[in-house]
Each structure stands twice: as C-alpha cells, then as structure tokens.
Amino acid sequence: MKKTEGRIKAIAKNIKLLILDVDGVLTDGSIILDNEGNEFKAFHVRDGHGIKMLEKAGIKVAIITGRHSKVVERRAHELGITEVYQRCHIKSVAYEHLIEKMGITDKEIAYIGDDIVDIPIFKRVALSVAVADATEETKAEAMIVTQNRGGRGAVREICDLILKSNGKWKELVDEYYQA
User: Fold this and answer.
1) Does the global pTM surpass 0.90?
2) Going from the N-terminus, what domains does the chain have, and what CATH number goes with each?
C-alpha cells in the first residue's frame, strides 16, 4: 500500500460503490477465441464471492470495460451486477452517468483497474486500486496496489478491505458459522 493503512481504511469505510474493469481485473487479461467466434474468459470464484458479500452489505458494484462480451453480461448477471457499461473507450463518460444515476460523489467510490485507460478515473475516485500485474504507469497513479494479480483474487482483496473498514466483515462472516 502506498498510503498509510489507517488512511486507506478511513477512505474505504465510506465506499458506497466499487467499479471494476474486466480484462486484467476480473480476469487475468487473457481473451481466448475459438474458430467459431466464441470468446472465453476465466473468473476467480473468490472475487465473485467478495462481490456478493459487498452487495449483501449494501455496497453497489458496477462494471466499466472497453470491450463488449456476452461472457461479461452473463457473469455480471450471475453476480447481481446491474450496472454494466461495455464498449467504453472513454470510461469517464460511463463514470459520469453512474454517479449521476446513483446520486453519489467521487468520495464514495472505489475503482479497480489495470491499464492506462483507467488512470482518468483513478484521479477522481476516493480509492484508486491497481492490480499487482497492472502497467507500471497505472500502479504509479493508484492509491493501492493489490498483492494479488488480476483474475487471481485482487478484487476479493479490495472487497475484504472495504468490508473490514466499514465494520461489516464480522457480521457477514458470522452468518456462515450460523448456517
């Protein structure tokens, strides 16, 4: 982490929306295409569980990505993510739409990215996060660089940070022990 842990937790405590890039964040960045034109992506199950826990705690999750993929639509649907913006080459346009639609401010938003197209949003949000294998330029602009790589638990790492910072972690975990 670049900033002090206490400062990061103070910021994370107020997060109401986590915005995610897809390729290189929710996936490892690989895009597999077959001869029939099908696209394949691998998602980490613990990232998905972290997203579900955020939603259960009342924290919204959105996706803004430059590519379009039916696989992303399917995964978002499985996770209950309703705000999905694809083919966003200028991600700030989708970002503006989201903050207006949700009635929240930059100070209530975290964003996880991996490449230079994510930097303009990094400069606006309260909590900017680069995954461990992001480009060097992206990591230099991020408030936090995760320990885990994209598609390999980086999203879960930040979900857990947000939940622990706002005091909802123990309550959510305790539910599993009572089941």
Assistant:
1) yes
2) 5-178 (3.40.50.1000)
